[in-house]
Every structure is written in structure tokens, then in C-alpha cells.
């Protein structure tokens, strides 16, 4: 039934889109759409990856290596991808990176041996690093400081909503064949490639304006200079901690904790992950506005406080009530810590080329995802319980909290804020 009061009408959808993307450049909407396509496809293929690997008669360890190798290739390729972006531009590297993941995924669906699958997933990891560094560099380069937090939050929402929709679609696709998800994943990635190539301008508007005013070549920010800023170290540390806890710990130990300590089924784990994701989704856009209005430092402090609190509540959990509360707090922390450090990196780079700076920053997040599960698993096995790995995570999160509380604000004040501060100072 169609009509102007229909909740699913195009008018309603367009109104919502205009509201959320108001005052943001077109690049933000495009990379958000690309992020949704990427996460949707990955959410479809991720649950079947270990099963598909085991179908070649390999061990569980070898099957998990298919996932680990993808992450490892992202890790080692992040900084070189930044160099490519500085040399060739975000649009080109983004398109090539997505194409590599798309083609390698389609070929993975036709793999006849475990070795072929392993090689193709490694190639996919390389392409994924190229895409993620180029997309974040483009995003930070396209918006001004007053809209940077909201832009990054919108970009994160694309991944989040795509990740939520992926398993739902994947449940239908895998019924056709265990190989089918790879081809669907390849298709969503090719859709993202077309979106990038046909809708992204050859040069961000902000860069065009800068070049029209000056004939000078845009300066490139060197890693050495970025590493001289304490704010950059803080952003990288928080990205590392988020990778270790919100991703590494959550994916590795929490499903086992639910089974062994809470004595609940795997369905409880799925519900808790859904609760965490929904909480993060609800807060992403309001948090983006807070980051731009109140500044980066307050958002960092709130996010690290929520993360530390969630881990403390998790450590003390002996029932479903406190366990679900910890997952809600962890999801809320993710909405703050997913966008704020990235906005800080954008503040540091400013209008210069800084893809290598972005690459090293993203590299720390991948490192956390790689190291976090191994450390958590080792501590759990060596101590025979969950208290020690959970408390180590609390300590790591507390370090990030201290760093966020003592770092200087990186958001530049606009003219209106400066006038207001000057007036308040004069009045007092």
C-alpha cells in the first residue's frame, strides 16, 4: 500500500537521509554506502568460512588460520597502503582494493584445495587494507573539524548496520550452497566498487577549494611528525585497546564464559552480541554530534569509562542481568571509541595528505584484534578461569582512560566558539 503516510515511503527515507547527512559533503554518504555493502557481504561469508575450510579435511587450527591470515595481511599492509594513497589518491586505491577483495572472494568460492583458499584470503586481506585506509583518509580529508565526528560516526554506522543485516541474509544464502556466500560477498563488493568509481568525485571538494586558492602542491604529513603528538599516541592506544577488548576478548572468551560460567546456551551469546550492537547503533549518531560540539576529549573519557565499567561488571557477573548490562555498556563504549580517535587523527593531519598516518593508526586496531584473542586465550588456559583475563582487560582499559583524561583537546574552535569564549572571559 502506497501513500504519503506510509512509514516505508521514499519520502520518509529521503527525509531521514537528508537529516542525517545535512551539512556533510557527498563523500560521507558515498563511503557510508560502501561500508554497508562491505559489511553486509562480510557478514554473509564470515560464519561459513571455518566450515568451508574444514570441508577440505584440515584441522580446526588450520581452518581458523583462514581468518587469522586475512587479519594479518590487513595488519602488515596498512602502512604501505597509506603510501599508495598518498601517491595515487584515495579514489583509485579504494576502487582497486575493493576489486581485489571482490575477485579473490569469487575465486575463493571456486577453490578446490585448502592452499588455494588460504592464498585467496591473503589477497583479500591486502585489498581490504587498501580499501579501509583509502576510505578513512578520504573521509577525514573531506570534512572540516566541526563535522568530523558526525562524519566518522556515519561511516561507522554503515559497517554496523551492514554487519547486523549480513548474518540474516547469509542464513538464506547458505541454504543454497556453502560456496554461495562467497559469490554474494563478491557481488556486494562489486556494487561497492561501482559506487566508489561512479559517485565519488575525482577530488574532494575541500581539496578542490584549497587548490583553487593556492597553486602549491598539497603537503604530506610524515609519520615522524605525527608520532611527535601525544594525541596521536593516545588515539593509537585507544584503537589498540578497543581491538583487544571489544573485539578480541568479546569474540574469544565471552561465548565460552556464557557456556562454562553462566551455564547458558550459545543462543545467549548471540542475544548478548545483538544487545551490544543495537546499543552502539542507537548511540552512534548522537555521539557523533557530541564529538563535534563538546570536543574529542570528553567523548574519549566517557568512552573509556564505559569500557572499563563494562569489563568490571563482566568480571563480577554471575547472572544474566549483570552480564547483559556489561554488554550494553560495551556497546555504548563502542559508539564513543569507534569514532572519536579517528576524529582526533583527522585533527592532527588537518588539510595535509596523511594516509600513512591513518594507515599506522588503523594498523594498531588490527594488531589488537590479532593479539587480543591470543592473550585472552593464553591467560584463560594458564590460570584455569576467567578472572585473570578479564582483570587484565580492565587494567588495559584503565590505561586508555588515564591517557584520554590527560590528553589535550585536538578540536579547533571555530570563530563563533572563540567569540563566545572571549565574551565570557571579558564578562567575568
- The count of β-strands is 0
CATH 2nd-level architecture of the largest domain: Up-down Bundle
Residues in helices, as a percent range: over 70%
**What is the number of helices?**
18
Overall pLDDT:
82
If you consult CATH, what is the topology of the largest domain?
Growth Hormone, Chain: A
Strand content: under 5%
Largest sheet at a glance?
none
Low-confidence stretches: 1-10, 204-216, 417-428
CATH superfamily of the largest domain: MFS general substrate transporter like domains
What structural class results from the helix and strand content? Answer: mainly alpha
Measured distance between first and last alpha carbons: 61 Å
Concise synopsis of the structure shown:
The protein is mostly helical.
Break the fold down into its secondary structure elements and pairings.
Layout: H1 10-21, H2 26-45, H3 49-54, H4 60-88, H5 90-108, H6 114-142, H7 148-173, H8 180-199, H9 205-213, H10 223-226, H11 230-252, H12 254-260, H13 266-294, H14 296-315, H15 320-349, H16 355-383, H17 387-406, H18 415-427
Helix pairs in contact: 2-7, 2-8, 4-5, 4-6, 4-16, 5-6, 5-8, 6-15, 6-16, 7-13, 7-15, 11-15, 11-16, 11-17, 12-13, 13-14, 13-15, 14-15, 14-17, 16-17
Amino acid at each position: 500500500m502506497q501513500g504519503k503516510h506510509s512509514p516505508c515511503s521514499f519520502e520518509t527515507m529521503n527525509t531521514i537521509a537528508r537529516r542525517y547527512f545535512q551539512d556533510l559533503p557527498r563523500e560521507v554518504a558515498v563511503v557510508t554506502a560502501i561500508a554497508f555493502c562491505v559489511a553486509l557481504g562480510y557478514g554473509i561469508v564470515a560464519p561459513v568460512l571455518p566450515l568451508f575450510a574444514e570441508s577440505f579435511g584440515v584441522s580446526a587450527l588450520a581452518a581458523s588460520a583462514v581468518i587469522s591470515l586475512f587479519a594479518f595481511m590487513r595488519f602488515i599492509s596498512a602502512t604501505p597502503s597509506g603510501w599508495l594513497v598518498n601517491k595515487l589518491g584515495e579514489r583509485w586505491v579504494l576502487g582497486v582494493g575493493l576489486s581485489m577483495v571482490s575477485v579473490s572472494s569469487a575465486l575463493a568460492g571456486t577453490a578446490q584445495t585448502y592452499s588455494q583458499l588460504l592464498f585467496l584470503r591473503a589477497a583479500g586481506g591486502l585489498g581490504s587494507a587498501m580499501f579501509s585506509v583509502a576510505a578513512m583518509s578520504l573521509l577525514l580529508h573531506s570534512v572540516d573539524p566541526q563535522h568530523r565526528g558526525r562524519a566518522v560516526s556515519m561511516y561507522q554506522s554503515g559497517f554496523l548496520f551492514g554487519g547486523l543485516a549480513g548474518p540474516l541474509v547469509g542464513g538464506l544464502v547458505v541454504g543454497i550452497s556453502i560456496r554461495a556466500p562467497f559469490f554474494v560477498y563478491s557481488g556486494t563488493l562489486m556494487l561497492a566498487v561501482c559506487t566508489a568509481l561512479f559517485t565519488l568525485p575525482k577530488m574532494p571538494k575541500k581539496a578542490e577549494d584549497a587548490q583553487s586558492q593556492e597553486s602549491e602542491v598539497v603537503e604530506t604529513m610524515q609519520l615522524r611528525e605525527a608520532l611527535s603528538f601525544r594525541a596521536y599516541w593516545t588515539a593509537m592506544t585507544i584503537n589498540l585497546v578497543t581491538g583487544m577488548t571489544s573485539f578480541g576478548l568479546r569474540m574469544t572468551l565471552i561465548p565460552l564464559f556464557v557456556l562454562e560460567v553462566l551455564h547458558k546456551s550459545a543462543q545467549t551469546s548471540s542475544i548478548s552480541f545483538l544487545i551490544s550492537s543495537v546499543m552502539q547503533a542507537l548511540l552512534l549518531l548522537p555521539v557523533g554530534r557530541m564529538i563535534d560540539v563538546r570536543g574529542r576529549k570528553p567523548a574519549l573519557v566517557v568512552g573509556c569509562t564505559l569500557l572499563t565499567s563494562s569489563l568490571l561488571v563482566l568480571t563480577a557477573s554471575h547472572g544474566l542481568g549483570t552480564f547483559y548490562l556489561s554488554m550494553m555498556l560495551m556497546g555504548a563504549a563502542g559508539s564513543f571509541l569507534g569514532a572519536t580517535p579517528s576524529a582526533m587523527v583527522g585533527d592532527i593531519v588537518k588539510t595535509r595528505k596523511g594516509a600513512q598516518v591513518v594507515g599506522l593508526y588503523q594498523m594498531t586496531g588490527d594488531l589488537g584484534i590479532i593479539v587480543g584473542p591470543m592473550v585472552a586465550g593464553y591467560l584463560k588456559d594458564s590460570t584455569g578461569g576467567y578472572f585473570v583475563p578479564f582483570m587484565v582487560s580492565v587494567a588495559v582499559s584503565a590505561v586508555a582512560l588515564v591517557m584520554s583524561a590527560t590528553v589535550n583537546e585536538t578540536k579547533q574552535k571555530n570563530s563563533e566558539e572563540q567569540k563566545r569564549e572571549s565574551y565570557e572571559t571579558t564578562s567575568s
